[in-house]
Amino acid sequence: MIDTVDKTKTSLRRMFFALTLPEAIQQDIVQWRAANFPPEAGRPIVAANMHLTLAFLGEISAAKAQVLQQQAGRISQAGFSVTLDDVGHWPGSGVIWLGCKNPPRGLLQLAQLLRSQAARSGCAQTSLPFHPHVTLLRGATRPVVIPAKTNNQRLCVDHFSLYESVLVRGRTRYTKVQSWPLASGERKPDDV
Ligand code: 2AM
Prior knowledge:
By secondary structure, this protein is an alpha+beta fold. Helix content is about 25%, strand content about 35%.
């Protein structure tokens, strides 16, 4: 019996849906961060781990992941663009982030759908409103001067992905499990 419980535990994977940042944007953000935050501001997130979370799933079984993957595959939505024109600090969680002042409707719709599908599958969702962001630094619990401007990095989003959080030699790495396209085509002005 104990054996069965242990096997079940080890098959759980910590997963989340997210938007991938292209490598060029990750590098651009790393340079901007180095120029705008002192080393003591917090622990920098490595470039390859920078992403924008859509829905956090927690530790889930393979069966639950499969259901969520099937549902994700049925999402039919147009792509959109996201401009990272906002920067802020949440001292409570120690996070310094890049975000967007006016998130496009497509981003909010996609996150809302994935979060409600996750909730229906029993993945507890935070009661906090969705605030799209890319975490730049962690452990930032002390006051810090927040730059007035970002580099306004712009992402053209044509897919979304399921990620797994894994420990590699004691370090957290996010590995992509599966991606799904967002439809291309005419974009309405308010989607840009
Ligand atoms: P964060 O960057 O704001 O910490 C992988 O851990 C991703 O899932 C991170 O982007 C993280 O957001 C997010 N995440 C982790 N735990 C979460 C939780 N309990 N609720 C919502 N998002 C979470």
